[in-house]
Every structure is written in C-alpha cells, then in structure tokens.
Amino acid sequence: MSFIRKLTEKAKETFKKSTNSSTVEGSRSNIRESDVAPPPLPSKSKTSASAPPPAAGRSSVQTRKVLVKGDKHATIKKKRYDLSDFHIDRTLGTGSFGRVHLVRLKSTGNFYAMKVLIKHEVVKMKQVEHTINERDILMRLDYPFLVELLGTMQDASNLYFVLEFVQGGELFTFLRRSGRFRNNVALFYAGEVILAFEYLHNRDIIYRDLKPENLLIDSEGHIKITDFGFAKEVPDVTWTLCGTPDYLAPEIIQSKGYGRAVDWWALGILIYEMIAGHPPFYDDDHFKLYEKILACKPKFPSHFDPNAKDLNGVEDIKRHAWFGDLDWQALEDCQIPAPYLPPCGKDGDASNFDVYDENHEPYGGPGPDPHKISLGTFKNWEGMSRGYGLEGTSFSILV
C-alpha cells in the first residue's frame, strides 16, 4: 500500500472515530513587465537562475490562520484598527518594494504578518496595477491553501497588507535543507497546489509566480500560497511579460497570448524541482535558459517516477496515474497528515525565517502623499477583505 493511501486510510479512520465520539462538538528574482518590453526576450535579472537566490533577495509574505470561523463558542467582534494599534516586530522577508514584518495586535496579543510596500518604489517600478490587482484578488480569496488577507491601510509613504502569520517558513528552505524530496512528499505538496490552482482558475485568476519561495508551510504542515503580486483575473488571454525565469512557460517567452495553462507548466517545473532538487532548465545566461525552455528536453534523474513526467490540465492531472492513490477530498479537508511538521514554538515564534537587518525607515510618519492626494493612485486602498471595506486609514479585523 502506498504512502498516500496509508495516510488517507489512517485519516479516514481517525476522522470516523472522532465524529462518533461524544466529546466532539462540531528566491529567485522575478521578471516584471516594466523590466523589459517584448519582443525581444527579457534581459537578465539581478539574480542568476542557475542557483538558489540569496536569502536576503527573497520576498515572501509569512502567514498563519488567525480568523475565528465556524466556532459557536467564539465571540466575533468587528473593530477599527490602524497602524498605531500594532507593535511592529522583526523582519520576516525583504523585496524590491519593501519588507514583511511580524506584528502583534496590542489589544489582543495576536500575531500577524504585515507586508509593507514603499509607494515611491511601486510607482517608479511601474507596479501600481500589479499591486492593486494583488489587493483586489486577495480580498476575494477564502481557501485553505491560499494566504488570507485581513485588511489594508496606508500612510503618506507606504502601503500595508495585514495577513495571517504562518510559523513554518518557506518550502524553499525545507527543500534546500533536504536536497530533494521523496516522491510521496512531492506528491503531497503538488496536490495541495493543484487544488489551490483549481480554486483560482474557477474564478478566472491566473497566479503566474509559482516557485518554492512562494509556498509557505503552516504549523500543521500544509501549504499556503503567498505573494499574489503577479496574479491577474484573465477570462480569456493576456500578454503581460512577468514571472520567474526558471518557471516561465514557452508562450510567455515567445510573447504569445496565454491563459491558465502557464500555471500548469509552472506546476510541472515545481514537481521536477521537488523530486530532482533543482529546476529542469537553468543557465547563468537567461537567453540560453529560454532556449532550453523552448527546446523542452529536460533530463530526468534515474530515481524520477515515470508517472511524474507528463501532466496536463486540472482534470487530467487529478486523474493522472501519479495521483492514483490520492483522495482529493481528504486532501482538501486537510485530513491527510502532512509529511513534515515544521518546528514551531509559541505564538509569534519566527525562528523558521531568516534574520534581516532592520534598516528601514519609520512607518506611519506624517508628510505629503502625492500618490494618493495628487495622483489618486492609491485613493481607495484602505479596507478589510471580502466586503468589509472601510474608508479612512483603518480597517476591521475579526478577533
């Protein structure tokens, strides 16, 4: 009996027993559209695609489930909060436009992750549309394997995303420490990504930036996809040139119109990287890298499961032989035990994340804001996700 089938049967047995019990009540760098103008092919980015990026060059939102849902004993309150209500702690990650902090809500002691984007940098790098798309898309999402946005706010200099905090760190870190994953481990993580993509694609949302750096592991070992900076609602096709070089689909490189298929291509790259320990196509020269992608002749290591070599479309993938023993409903319900549980201490323990210099400007200071007042770029930024938007520089959180 396979690992996944054993886990599924064990989970079903445990779940059945629990329901019958009387005690149960219920970094690699990205290619952005502003970097190049296709054609020709994108120019080199700052980080070589042939090796893992330096830790300081990665940018991720670290998350953990914090909203109370479906608990009849919980008291749900809605209250306005602003920046002064949070204690800003250490940096969890950095990026081109800002950084991510661990923060604590002073009134409750609950921990969150706060993604801070510098307005000037967002405008200079022509990422206003992507940033607004990220906010708008995150507000629509509610799925176990996707990062949850609680609210957004701004001051004269910065934009703020307040998100759940996950203690387990990046899949990238776990993969590099392991070298490569066993087949069953890669299958588990790939399965959760597939379900997340199915959820997004059913809402016409393409993710466009899949890679181990953007997959977080929660305290129970499940995936959380984060960083929706390149996500976009695409009912048919789009031509935007963006993504991470190793993971770009051929149609993106060729400046052709593309749709959700580029996410399935990226899934194939992810599966290969998890099983082999490195992506299938890599080169210090990005032009040579793109030539290898277009030629599409990856070399499979001898230990590679033959069934993991060809995957297409969500329904074909879910019925594929490689996933033959996987109970998709049990996986979606998080009833299959994860193959790895990250070492997590008490709430607010950020030991699974790299340590960064805290050399950032103070947040929340007064001053002119041309990007809101004069240009109106971020005029309607503030609010809580999924229909709880509020005017002003504060938002509501369910606690």
From TrEMBL:
Protein kinase domain: residues covered: 86-399
Region feature (Disordered): 1-64
GO biological process: anatomical structure morphogenesis
Residues annotated as binding ATP: K115
EC number: 2.7.11.11
Polar residues composition-biased segments: 17-29
Sequence similarity: Belongs to the protein kinase superfamily.
Protein name: cAMP-dependent protein kinase
